[in-house]
Amino acid sequence: xLQASGGGSVQAGGSLRLSCEASGFTFDYYTVAWFRxxxxxxxxxxxxxxxxxxxDYAESVKGRFVVSRNQNAMSLVMNSLKPEDTAVYYCAARLxxxxxxxxxxxxxxxxxxx
Length: 114
Description:
single chain; 114 residues; mainly beta; seven-stranded mixed beta sheet; four-stranded antiparallel beta sheet; 54% strand; globular
C-alpha cells in the first residue's frame, strides 16, 4: 500500500511538499511516480523516478518541482506553484517489468489560489 500525505492550500508562488510512504514492500524494484488530476481533466504524469535514479518531469513542472525517493518513501517538493497546478495528486509505483502502475496512493488535494 501507498500512503500519501502533504498537500493543502497555498497562494500562487508558494511551495508545498508531498510525501508518499510504502508499507508492506520496498521500492527496490519499482519505478515510482507522481500523477495529478484536475477537475474535468484526465490524469497526467507529473514526475517519475526509476530504480537507477533517472528522473523525468512533465514540461509544465520542470524547474519548479523536485522529486526524490529512497527505499520506502518518495516526495515531491513543489515550488513556484501556479493556479493550474491545482489538482488531486497521486503517488504510484510499478515493478520495472510491469507496463502499468500496480500501487496507488489515496490522493491528496493541492489547491493554489491566485
